[in-house]
Amino acid sequence: MTRAQRKLILPATLAALVVAVIVLAPVLPLPDVRSMDVPNRFAGPSATHWLGQDEFGRDVLARLIWGGRASLFIAVGSALAAAVIGTVLGLLGGYFRGLVEFVTVRAAEVILCLPPLLLALLVVTILGAGTWPLILALTILYTPIYARVVYSATLQVRSLDYVTAQKAMGAYPLRILATTVLPNVMPPLLVQISLVVASAMLIESGLSFLGLGVVPPTPSWGLMIQAARGSMEVAPMLLLWPSLALAGTILTFNFLCDRLQTALDPRGITAGGALWLRGGGSRGAVPRSARRAAAPKQDTLLEVEGMSIAAQNAGTSLELVRRVSVTVRRGETVALVGESGSGKSITGLALTGLLPDALSITGGDVRFVARDGEEIDLGALDEAGFRRIRSGEISMVFQDAAASLNPVLRIGEQVAEALRAHGGARGRDVDARVVELLRQVGLPDPERRARAYPHELSGGQRQRAMIAVAVANNPRLLIADEPTTALDPTIQAQILELFRSLKKATPDMGLIFITHDLAVVAEIADRVTVMYAGEVVEDGPADEVFAHPHHPYTAALLASVPEGGTDRLVAIPGTVPLPDAMPEGCRFAPRCSHARDVCRTGSPPTSHPTPERRTRCVRWKEIA
Amino acid sequence: MTGTLNRRGFLASTGAAAGALTFLGPKGLKAQEGQTLRYALSTYPPSFDAWASTGSAAGAIKLMIHRGLLSYGPDGALRGELAENWEVDDEGAWVFTLREGAFWHDGSPVTSADVAWTVTEAQKPDSAALFQAQLALITSVETPDERTVRMVTDRPLATLPGWFAHYHMPILKDGEAQDSLIGAGPFTFDSTERGVSIRLGAFGDYYKEGLPKLGGIEAIVYADENLRVTALEAGDVDLIEYVPWQAMQQIEDNSSLKLDAVDGPFMYLTFNGSRPPFDNPLVRRAVAHAINRDDIAAAAFYGRGGSLAHLPIADASEFYQEDLSQGWAYDPEQAQALLAEAGYPDGFDCVMLSTAQYGMHQSTAEVCQAYLSMVGINVQLDLPEWATRVQKGNDGQYDLAVMGTTADNNDPDGLATVLDGSLPPSFVRSYGMETPEISDLFARARATFDLEERIALYRQLEEIALETTPMTGLAWRSQGYAMKSGIEGFTNLPGQLTFYSPITLEDVMAG
Amino acid sequence: MIRYVAIRSLTAIFLVWVVVTLVFMLLHLVPGDPAELLLSQGSIAADPAAVAALRERMGLNDPIWQQYLDHLGGVVTGDFGASFRDGAPVAEQIATRLPRTLEIIIAAAVIAAAAGIPVGTYAAIRAGGRVDGFVNFLASAAMSTPVFVVGSVVILLFAQQLRILPAGGYVPFSVDPVQHLKLLLMPAGTVALALWAVIVRMSRGAVLEVLQRDYVRTARAKGLGRGPILRRHVVRTALIPVLTVLGLEMGTLIGGTVLVEYVFNWPGLSGYLVAAVDARDYPEVVGIVMTISVIFVFLNLAVDLVNALLDPRISLVRR
């Protein structure tokens, strides 16, 4: 059971409780809701009447419970009826489009143009007041809403590959709708149902208030509120109880609906928030504890030693990256290599303080030498501290440029923002610098491109723009996280060429190139750091590592690269272990053909085959 | 009090002119007066059609702008307005003598020609006038001189002056449109914001000297009864009509406000006499005995009203019959016996029509339903909004129905509208109910000028009504006006005349 | 763009025609006779001859298709007809009533947006925290309390107990601006409360979603401060869905403020509609419904256009 599912328990219990009381009304020992006791009208709570008596001396508690029955029955009934009809209309309209769409979805939208009250008024006056006309009125009212939701969901699903494939295979449309499209539109539908139930209860009460709803003496909350409003001065509690019941029930449903949304949406967008945005003593300056006098080695730009990153959640800690050490010298290109799940991207994010809220550096030393020669402990920086070094000192190029550029801002503005953030250029200078940067990253016609929106550029052009943003303030260290992965092979080559030319133009800039593609590494990297399951398994000069890997994982990775003559790709058997199921001993052992018993007992120590190289394999000597 | 019509109008008609003089106040007073009164209307007049039945709120506006030949004074007695004298001549025709010094708002004098024109226009079949059918009984209107109007009818009509006292029967100036806002009343129409408010100013040439005392009236619509009370309490208005019953106590308890309420309008049940089970008088009488009317007064009117177990004739009226007043008294055993006798020992199912639009109709229906279920009559409520309820009532789409109304005036003749089965079908009376004896008695009483004789006729009528139960009275309801305690001169007219009360606005002084 | 607007407008006009026809037909199905009703005010038995005369005058004795064509013909030439009740021109009445309802809706939308967007954004930033929980609760509570309850309580509090506001009613701005605004405060506030709840929840959700977007991370990587990131990247993008919802909500409110207008005695279009239906004043009902649906469909169009303006990815032509 996930956290989101656990959080469903409370609202679900509450909702179940409300429903149970209401459903069980006939068997509960309640007084008759119709029996009047006029002499004792407006009597306060007593042993026989826990919530007192109403304007006819009837029992308020009994009427409240039975009233909920009427209100809920109408709300749920109309929500379900509308869901069924609306779903069918939406499915048909969304799947077939064209004329079918017109007579289903568009026709349903006529109803949206009518004031809801007029609609209810017309239906109820034609059919007479009562429960069923009310359900009909509300059903008509809500059908277009479902039709819309399902229609747009269907449109999305309809173009998905597996639906197209089924269509191509000649499956009947109805079958496709029932088996593939419907399950996909279920989540938004469920959420919509709980929303509609809440809203239907509100409208039911409003209609009953206007005398268009339930027929007395059947109680409903709206009727009770209406009656109590008249005697507000005499008996204010009579207004309070049904209002509370109504608000409380709707609140419960909203609550349930929120949690349901969270549980159904695995991305969990509703659980996020943003720690970095919360105030909390932003000092703005690099804290003293993070400063150190002199650099240990002259050329070192970044020195990561034994850095661990863990996900913290409700007291438990899950280590995602363990004791990683990486060093980057001035002008050096270090490639961080590994399969997905190896922790390389997280390592990159940690260096710019952009880790997701749930993750944090839990150990080790991360030292960065700034332009002024000062050494900064990145592990001790807060958001404001990082802000000062981002872009100007350390900058980052992200994997998916399409997502990493703001879709509603022009490219030029996004580059200019970076420039302005550090108070460099102003006014006209900025514009000129933007164009210059865009030209530098190889965007054709940079003046025009600066005015374009991201979606108006090609994938490669977007990545170039992304790079322009990253290098706008001449960073000392550039971290590129899979910058070519999402691109076509030809574009990949162009982007790699761009990195190479950038390095030529700024020879002092260090570059961490995160990739899973060894072919790319071979082209660009001076050094290679191979990561597996959150650990560095091998490290050394690129050419040496490629020639003589000292770790079976590196060897396996190299073997999997389709090279010139080989058209057979040697895949590594198995998958990267999950962080909560790390094997004892060497983490690669379960997938390693060289593994021995010793590998499965203790964590292998780091060995130095040469001063420039490291490996975490006890048997490195035996691996050619 | 009801008898004054006859005493004044027939027995002592010459004394009428003197009455107006008592209203004359010292002339000097007027200078320091002249405030504007803010009057909270319960609804905006659907139209300003002078002669159409447009409801009591419209009636209030008409009583500000227009005047009829006659009216009722604060004591409920018929009094002269544009006419200072009215009597039946030897040939049985009514002769009205107009007062001198009455002017239209445009400055021209009110003449007998205006009255004749009014009668002729309103009696036309397409006039849509409330009294069109009655006025049609006037065969000719003669105007021997500028101040005399003689109305000739086929047969003697004792009730004719009452028509011209009604707020839906004002006199209009010759040639004016039917919804003209030029009248001869104490206030002149100034401006209106449709649906929101109507502003009126004092008419300087009003025929009662020194009146009106107010400088003007601003009638503001407050449709929600609770808000109407709140507006009075908050000081947004000075006087409100249709005080909701639940608020009467709190107004009485408030030292800065006062309440003037009378029992006038009444609630009753109508039956569908065209089909079983209510075509059987025994069943109707069983229903009449099955309902505890005290609970209706308590629950629907917060105790502001009273039980009505006979015909709606007030106990102060000379037509009131003490020994008949409990003719339909609550007696469940008798109700059950009657049901058994009618062949329904185990009761039956039926539909009761009422409306959800007005709380009092709904509450009354709910109480009736509860009591009827105790004698085995299983009632299903039908509570559409008012318009549908009216239609269903007219078409007889019900078994029994809750209604509430007032009679035109305190004369028992006003009850014909709810009792007389010979009248065309209407939601205000039982559907398909044959009442030949009652219709006959109404006609005879109308043609009789002798009070004692009329009392005897109406007693006979009430006895038959109690026996056959063409409808059954349920409850008197209190009709209230509330105002700031500084308001002087406003009087809630007694009994059925309560909606005539805005005529006293001419005497009102805002303190 | 122009082509798009033209097509959408044509569809809208078609939609309005369908709505008007539907309402016209339904109205004649609804029991209740306008002439009868008008003449039986105050529970007085109307005279059948008078009713017949009035029906003739109202044109109700014509066959229904002729009434429909007459009415439609009038509408096309800009003549909405006259009220059955007092002959007031319907168009003129709508022209005086509509701005009052719009005033409430716009005032409520402004209040709700001004108070809702910052609160929703703050709650999103503090998602999962205590403040967030409280805001969520508040919004849900505001959403689930019927307006007539809120209205009654507000009147009790401000007009009856504290006596700082009038109990309700309407004074034209031109007559007394201060009183006008005072009177506007309670109804607009009451409508705003429910709208506020919607906006808080929408903006919270939208901000949360945007916060997870990669481009926000990019903005941080640029070294931008909190303020600029929130303003330029988070709220600006999150506003698009929020404004869409706000626009649609405003659309449903036209004609949906009945209860508020009733409780606060505000003579707007919604109350006018109910009164017209109650009186079976067909020309009025049809005229009002037509006005409401015209505004509704064109507001939807406007929302789409504004969306396209705010979000360059949306291409109007493709849709």
What's the arrangement of secondary structure elements?
The complex is a heterotrimer of chains A (624), B (511) and C (319).
Chain A: H1 3-6, H2 9-23, H3 60-96, H4 98-113, H5 116-127, H6 131-158, H7 161-168, H8 173-209, H9 221-230, H10 236-264, E1 291-292, E2 300-313, E3 316-329, E4 333-337, H11 344-351, E5 359-369, E6 375-377, H12 383-389, E7 394-397, H13 401-404, H14 411-421, H15 427-440, H16 446-450, H17 459-471, E8 477-481, H18 489-505, E9 510-515, H19 518-524, E10 527-532, E11 535-541, H20 542-547, H21 552-560, E12 614-615
Parallel strand pairs in A: 4-9, 4-10, 7-8, 8-9
Antiparallel strand pairs in A: 1-6, 2-3, 2-5, 5-6, 10-11, 11-12
Chain B: H1 4-11, H2 16-21, H3 29-32, E1 36-41, H4 56-65, E2 70-72, E3 78-80, E4 83-88, E5 94-98, H5 112-122, H6 132-135, E6 138-145, E7 148-153, H7 160-163, E8 187-193, E9 197-202, E10 216-221, H8 225-233, E11 239-240, H9 245-253, E12 257-271, H10 281-290, H11 293-301, E13 305-307, H12 332-341, E14 348-353, H13 359-374, E15 377-382, H14 386-395, E16 400-405, H15 416-419, H16 436-446, H17 451-468, E17 471-484, E18 487-488, E19 509-510
Parallel strand pairs in B: 1-10, 1-11, 14-15, 14-16
Antiparallel strand pairs in B: 2-3, 4-5, 5-7, 6-7, 8-9, 9-10, 11-17, 12-16, 12-17, 13-17, 18-19
Helix pairs in contact in B: 10-12, 11-13, 16-17
Chain C: H1 2-29, H2 34-39, H3 48-58, H4 64-76, H5 90-125, H6 130-144, H7 147-161, H8 177-211, H9 214-221, H10 226-253, H11 258-263, H12 269-278, H13 282-310
Describe the protein.
Chain C: It is found in: Cell membrane. Chain C: The chain crosses the membrane at residues 12-30, 104-125, 137-159, 179-199, 238-265, 285-310. Chain C: One of its GO terms (cellular component) is plasma membrane. Chain C: This is Peptide/nickel transport system permease protein. The complex is a heterotrimer of chains A (624), B (511) and C (319). With 624 residues, chain A is of the alpha/beta class. Chain A is 48% helix and 13% strand. Chain A has helices at residues 3-6, 9-23, 60-96, 98-113, 116-127, 131-158, 161-168, 173-209, 221-230, 236-264, 344-351, 383-389, 401-404, 411-421, 427-440, 446-450, 459-471, 489-505, 518-524, 542-547, 552-560; strands spanning 291-292, 300-313, 316-329, 333-337, 359-369, 375-377, 394-397, 477-481, 510-515, 527-532, 535-541, 614-615. The two termini of chain A are 46 Å apart. Residues 281-286 of chain A have low confidence and may be disordered. With 511 residues, chain B is α+β, with helices and mostly antiparallel strands. Chain B has a domain at 265-477: Roll (Dipeptide-binding Protein, domain 3), CATH 3.10.105. Chain B is built from 17 helices and 19 strands. In chain B, helix 10 runs antiparallel to helix 12 (332-341), helix 11 runs antiparallel to helix 13 and helix 16 runs antiparallel to helix 17 (451-468). The longest helix of chain B is centred in the last third of the chain and has 18 residues, at 451-468. Chain C has 2 domains: 1-84, no CATH class; 100-279, MetI-like (MetI-like fold, Orthogonal Bundle). Chain C is built from 13 helices and no strands. Chain C has helices spanning 2-29, 34-39, 48-58, 64-76, 90-125, 130-144, 147-161, 177-211, 214-221, 226-253, 258-263, 269-278, 282-310. Chain C starts with a helix and ends in a 9-residue tail after the last helix. The model of chain C has no long low-confidence stretch (mean pLDDT 84). The chains are: A alpha/beta (624), B alpha+beta (511), C mainly alpha (319). Chains A and C meet through helix 4, helix 5, helix 8, helix 9 and helix 10 of A and helix 1, helix 6, helix 7, helix 8 and helix 9 of C.
